[in-house]
Fold this protein.
Amino acid sequence: MRIVVCTKQVPDTEAQVKVSPDGRSIEETGITFIMNPYDEFAVEEAIQIRERGEAGTTVTLVTMGPERTEEVLRRGLAMGADAAVRVWDDSLAEADSGVTAEVLCAVARRLGFDLILCGRVAIDDAAAQVGLRLAEKLGIPHGNAVTKLDVEDGKLIARCEIEGGVEVRELPLPALVTAQKGLNAPRYPAIPAVMKARRVEIALFSPAELGLDQSAAASRQSRILTLEPPPARAAGRMIDGDPAEAARSLAHLLRDEAKVI
Amino acid sequence: MSYYHPNFDVRKKFCECFLPEPREEVYAVVENMHNLVDEVIMPLRRDLDGGWTHDQAVADVAIATAMQAIYDSGWPRAILPEEKGGLGGVMKSMVTYAMLIEELGRADCGIALDVSLLYWFYSPMLYAGRTDLIDIFGPPLLDGKHHRACTSLTEPAGGTNIDDTTQHGRTLRTIARREGDEWVINGAKIWPSGASVADIGYMTLTTTDPNLGDDGIKLIYVPADAKGLSFGKPIPTMGMCCTDTNTEVFYDDVRVPVEYAATWGTDMKDVDLFKELAVEDKLTTPAYVNGACQTVLEILLDFSKDRIVAGKPMREHSVFVHTIGGLIHMWDYSRASYMQGCYMADHPEKYGPLWGKFMYSRAASVDQACLMAARRIIETAMDLMGSYGTAHEYHLEKYYRDVKQAELWLGGRYRTQMDVVLDYYDYEWAGPKWEPTPSR
């Protein structure tokens, strides 16, 4: 089985993200980048499928981004993936979900695949679109927000989270699955694997090498006009005085001002 | 983590100029350990100490979990030469080892010590090129299970003088007598970390005759199950109270093959390996103590951000700004100091062997600078946090206990300062000639 896993590099969840002076991007200085946590579930699942599955199963990681994004590929390689591909040229600097899906579609076709795994959502833009758009472009079925995945007789049994419940779907292969938290516990790469992963050659493709016309893609992609941080939290209010009176005031504020009770 | 700042990140805090090549590989390995520590070991911090009541049963479960994660990472096997199952490459570097151990120290000094004890146990045989000893004692590092080793140096009578190289081993009371193809060891040690729980072995500092001075010194590997080896009861201590076990080690006619002496069949001197061991300890203990200080600073920065004094966050008052700034720079220069020392250790072609006067003095200097800075950082953080600083909930008291304990090793501050001057002027011990006590 040929498994392709789409990964994205995102700012660390603990990083303090600031809008850069251009107002359209984030300030990268001082930011630590990590593999999107949902993509880690996808990588782990792919490796587990290979470990318990048929001989000859391969796991190939794909990412789209500048050179620094190779770090996520190397982390995935250290976890146990077999190969990695990066796609980039400057024309992709402002790629939206649609263009990203087009690029990944071209890569998947180039590599060949039986199963594609993606994270359910990237924690930076939280768009949750690329996986589903990719399935649509490839014309394959998908399981979204999957928390359990089994491969049986050439098909997938996927337990998908849906609003207010769970749906178990059967998907014929080839198919695409987006990984939800709870699917597995991503492993910590062992030191020998980390060292080995540093030496793996990562294939680099430009959109043109994948047969994509970026000028056409640019004409139909959305653009970020402005980025704004969320409004600053208002200062807390202290309620002084007699405890009984303070409790009444608090209840009043929660009911009439905050409208939370 | 308590408080995120990019300067706490692996790629910022460890200056690449000290790193072995390929540097990206070092950063990747250390970053991996950083993540493992944050997600697996940090949450265990209280339990590693057995909680407030130091319940050893609680601690044992946490220690097993933490150490298994470390063994699963493949780190301990890195101690071995590549041809014996080790990892080679950047993992041979003391700089890499120190960076990894600093990351571990962020969570717990005792767990970091557990790993360090392995390095210290094996280093004499590695420096002596004793592949035959590696064949005998090395396999536990390859089975992926938690093992412990002990470096058995300090004695009840000799105390800290054992570590004073100007005494040339004349106060040693643990005697190795040659009988045919065996060493017969008699004597006692006290305080060795890992004593009574080590299952790999006891690397034991002995002398064939105290009056021979340096020439009498023998470092001898004693298997953990050797007949005649026994232990006292664990001595409860202030720091690392559950992660480390200190007690007496008794050697009563313990017999081991002659080739278990670290330098057997080589041109090396045991006294040099003993000095090498001390240098390694003094260059890497500061690393995990520095890790502990990072966590303390994170806790302090977090606390002082939310603590309001006279209408604004505590850390925005100039007196606190000044004090916190001082703590950060101590933490920063401590790392620069030990990283430089480890870099020098990695380059004996430029700085001489670890047992040379230069490195011995340099390591003592690093140890003193970093340990004193660490204690000041934690004490001052406690001062700033007031009673919160002493509360179990805030972890500072645990780091304080652990760091103080580490500061006392290898003779503590005052004795180690004597080592600092060794490279600047000579001084020698002028005590009386030692007379052996009658055999028991």
